[in-house]
User: What shape does this take?
Amino acid sequence: MGKLHRKPAGSNGEVHNISPQGAGWTYVGFKLYHLDKGDSIKQLSDDREVILVLVEGKAEIAAGDSNFGELGDRMSVFERTPPHCVYVPNAVSWTVNPTTRCVLAVCSAPGKGNYPARIIGPTGIELEQRGKGANTRYIHNIAMENRDVADSLLVTEVFTPDGNWSSYPPHRHDEDNYPDITYLEETYYHRINPAQGYGIQRVFTEDATLDETMAVSDGDVVLVPKGHHPCCSPYGYEMYYLNVMAGPLRKWRFQNHPDHDWIFQRDKD
Assistant: This one.
């Protein structure tokens, strides 16, 4: 199993490359690029489907025979506007040509060829509130189960106000036992506002065979191969994260930590 906390490799070009082989798991892949106007990326999706998320900036995007033109209007992720996103099926070439400085996330998982290349955001993505009090956060469901847009991928982005908790109460999705729980590997790509701040994320199992607590900086990625994975943002610093999940079944079914489930039960009433 690879190291859970990944720092960006520089500030330009490919700054993250999380492969299933490098992570020590089977399904989720995640790449992140910092690109300038005039840069260009062309890749073949091979046996994996891809969701391209323009985290920030604008770019011309094409996939296969489809040219989607210039996409993107969110210049800072903390504008909280829905992202422009493109779905690319397996065995299809795609290109991204930035027209401004941009941040591009490449989310991947095994593909089955059931969906064509197409734009899947911002239309259809709304900002939703989840939680109460200091557990309040705001969600963009890019490609969660409620959207029939992918074979394997589940993708969402979350905005956590300063001083609040997120992915909380602690929950896990590390067993293939549908409908009670599903096995989903997961990555968290973190951003912090202002950028000099930090957030905290803990990844731990109930038997304590895995228990890591990490101070995450702007641009870091955390891997969640199993266990519970809450995070929080200190007072004065807003946290954003982009989640990529995948497993043998495209269903998000989780179980809360038994010691903390009472919080969920109280707040759902």
Observations:
- The chain has a mean pLDDT of 97.
- The first strand starts at residue 5 and ends at 6.
